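Give me the 3D structure for Epithelial membrane protein 1.
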Amino acid sequence: MRTDVWGRWIWFNNKWNHTELPNIPSYPSDYVQAVQATTVLACIFSIIGLFVFLAQLFTLPKGQRFTISGIFQILACLFIMIAASIYTDRFHVNEFVGNYGHSYILAWIAFGLTFISSIVYFVLRKK
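Predicted structure for Epithelial membrane protein 1 (127 residues):
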């Protein structure tokens, strides 16, 4: 069994079958929606940060910092942290079968990388 925020995958008859998330107390729907929303917001702010960086790259005068890009990246970092923290705290509490999977690990790696990226944007000066 594999579970993520969008559905549950169960190995049955030698193939993976996608099912809806169960309607049990360990999967409260308001927390699922909060994780989904913050995940989407993290992607949106990360993409906006990239486009703002490209715009600032060509419009900023020399010696200026990429602070607006850094702000968008730190917001993306914050939303990734919120989504991963809610998922860690509220899901799979009483389950003993299965695991978090690679997406969960990638979410925490993405948190670290966006944090480093935001710090680089705050420190980086246009030369």
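Helices lie at 29-59, 67-90, 102-123. Let me know if you want a second pass.
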